[in-house]
Amino acid sequence: MSSTPRIVLLPGDGIGPEIVAAARRLLDALGEFEFEELLMGGCSIDAHGVALTDAVLAACRESDAVLLGAVGGPKWDTTDPDAPRPEQGLLGLRKGMGLYANLRPVRPSPALVGASPLREERIAGTDLLVVRELTGGIYFGDSGRDGDSAHDTCEYSVAEIERIARAGFGAAQRRAAGGGRSARVTSVDKANVLETSRLWREVVGRVAGEYPEVELDHLLVDNAAMQLVSRPAEFDVILTENLFGDILSDESAMLTGSLGMLPSASLGEAGAPGLFEPVHGSAPDIAGRGIANPLATFLSTAMMLRHGFGRADEAERIEAAVDAVLERGLRTPDLLGGTVAPAPTPENPSPESEVGTTEMTDAVLAEVQLDLP
Ligand code: IPM
Ligand code: MG
Predict the structure, then answer these.
(1) Which of 174, 177, 262, 323 is deepest in the core (most CB within 10 A)?
(2) How far, in Å, CA of 262 to CA of 267, rounded?
């Protein structure tokens, strides 16, 4: 990597430009970075007729890391199989950059446990990581329409399963080393029905032999969906294939009380640039109103610093700043769940207060800079 990291910014659609601009301010406060801002998603369809141009893919591959806002919106929603869709840009990036490992950590911020739809005692202590296979399975198998029927094919090779399994076991090992916990991988499949799942289970079991200190168990995906809401705190690493990971990661995100809080990293081979993005979507209904929650993008920026640039100290500084502003009661509207922020009282002088993107960003910046050496 060059001394000044080169980051491609893909703001995308909806609230994407607002939250990526906020992240850019955060990065500028932390140090020196080179930015290149490019079109991907619906905005690229409008400009070029495709969601991802070859030039943008090439720029991403040549960068040190890619930070993405969100793509999509009603303007480009269609069931026409021949029309371009914003999501194709994201899938094209994943495939074109070889980003087979998607990491989605779920750790409810202490100040937000009350915002979870689950009872506090259920989610207390939840700290899990979804490791989702990202470039295979039904997302990338043969698909099409034939007269009045349609098909999507799910396919996995041993090599694809092996490398994502190693990513999962490796992550469990590192989490245990960092946090004094025992390492456990829960592999999720549908081995009672699907052949790809039976291969998955076999290969994951074999790879587990390389990691004797990591405990492995297997869950069927329907059971996993249930256990996630009934005993989330007992999970460590959830290792799963592409489609199941898509679904379970949204479910896990809700444990934190807001989809607006969940970051993600998509990684390929060691040394190749990764892609970092909030898990939430483009929220077209609130775009341009200055109320988008930038926190998941800040936490994704932290993942970029940690996984992309090996700058774990700064990552932790951002994570601590996010916790601190939430602790002080600052809330974008999505974190208030439709309720009106209460007025201060003598018993509770700093209750939750509703803020917009700029105020939230200012507060996080102030925390991060307070903390600078
Ligand atoms: C995600 C999203 C994407 C996916 C969509 C936008 C293609 O839901 O990153 O989880 O299904 O992978
Ligand atoms: Mg999803």
Answers:
(1) 262
(2) 17
What residue type is assigned to position 134 of the chain? L
C-alpha to C-alpha distance for 129 and 275, rounded to whole angstroms: 17
pLDDT on residue 117: 83
Name the stretches of the chain with pLDDT < 70. 1-2, 258, 337-345, 347-350, 371-373
The first and second tokens of residue 40, run together, are: 């991907």
Q: Is the separation of the CB atoms in 372 and 316 below 8 Å?
A: no
Residues 6+ apart with CB under 8 A from 297: 19, 20, 22, 23, 67, 69, 263, 277, 278
Question: Is 139 in the active site?
Answer: yes
Half-sphere exposure of 315 toward its Cβ, with a 13 Å CA cutoff?
Answer: 15
Which residue's C-alpha comes closest to atom 7 of ligand 1?
87
Minimum CA distance residue for ligand 1 atom 2: 246
Q: Which helix (H) or strand (E) holds 239?
A: strand 237-240
Residue type, 335: L
Q: Classify residue 250 by burial, with Cβ atoms within 10 Å: 0-12, 13-18, 19+.
A: middle
Per-residue tokens: 22: 């906020």
Residue 36: name the closest of 16, 12, 56 by CA: 56
Cβ pair 302, 89 in contact under 8 A: no
| Furthest CA-CA distance within the chain | 69
**Report field, pTM of the whole predicted structure over 0.90:** yes
CA distances from residue 240 to 43, 136, 194, 234 in whole angstroms, order as listed: 31, 11, 14, 17
Render pLDDT for 248-266 as a digit per residue (tens, 0 to 9).
Answer: 998 988 887 767 789 999 9
Atom 10 in ligand 1: residue holding the nearest Cα: 246
Could you tell me if 40 and 89 are in contact, meaning their C-beta atoms sit under 8 angstroms apart?
yes
The CB density around residue 364, as the number of other CB atoms within 10 Å, is 24
Cα–Cα dist 274/5, whole Å: 13
Tokens linked to 26: 């955060």
Measured CA to CA, the distance from residue 162 to residue 160 in angstroms comes to: 6
> Buried b vs exposed e over 81-105: b needs ≥16 C-beta within 10 Å?
eeebbbebbbbbbbbbbbbbbbbbb
Q: Which residues line ligand 1 (CB under 6 A)?
A: 87, 90, 246
Cα(2) to ligand 1 centroid in Å equals 31
The ligand minimizing its distance to the Cα of 241 is 1
